Amino acid sequence: MQLEIQFKLKQEKNMYQYLQENSYWIQKLNRDVRAYPQFLEAMKDLYRLRTTDKISDAIDQIDFVSSFLSAFK
Q1: List of residues 6+ apart from 52 with CB closer than 8 A
Q2: In whole angstroms, what is the distance from residue 54 CA to residue 59 CA?
């Protein structure tokens, strides 16, 4: 594995945690550096770090607050 990728993995808490939970990625990244974008996508899917996930979470929170406030009317 390239040193640059190793530094990136250790700097980001989520990446390092995902790598510990899914150790097969170590083998994939050692064999092919081009698998790094796939690793990022898999991590973002699991931890819901995509922009669309953040938007849907915000909408869900707004819906919850509005339903909570409408219950007190």
Answers
A1: none
A2: 9
Q: Is 6 left (phi over 0), alpha (psi -120 to 50) or beta?
A: alpha
CB-CB contact of 14 with 47 (8 Å): yes
Is residue 19 within 8 Å of residue 9, measured between CB atoms? Answer: yes
Cα–Cα distances in Å, from 46 out to 14, 18, 30, 40? 10, 9, 22, 10
3-class DSSP state of 46: helix
The single-letter DSSP state of residue 35 is G
| 7-57 confidence digits (pLDDT tens) | 999 999 999 999 999 999 999 999 999 999 999 999 999 999 999 999 999
- Per DSSP (E only), the strands in 1-73 are none
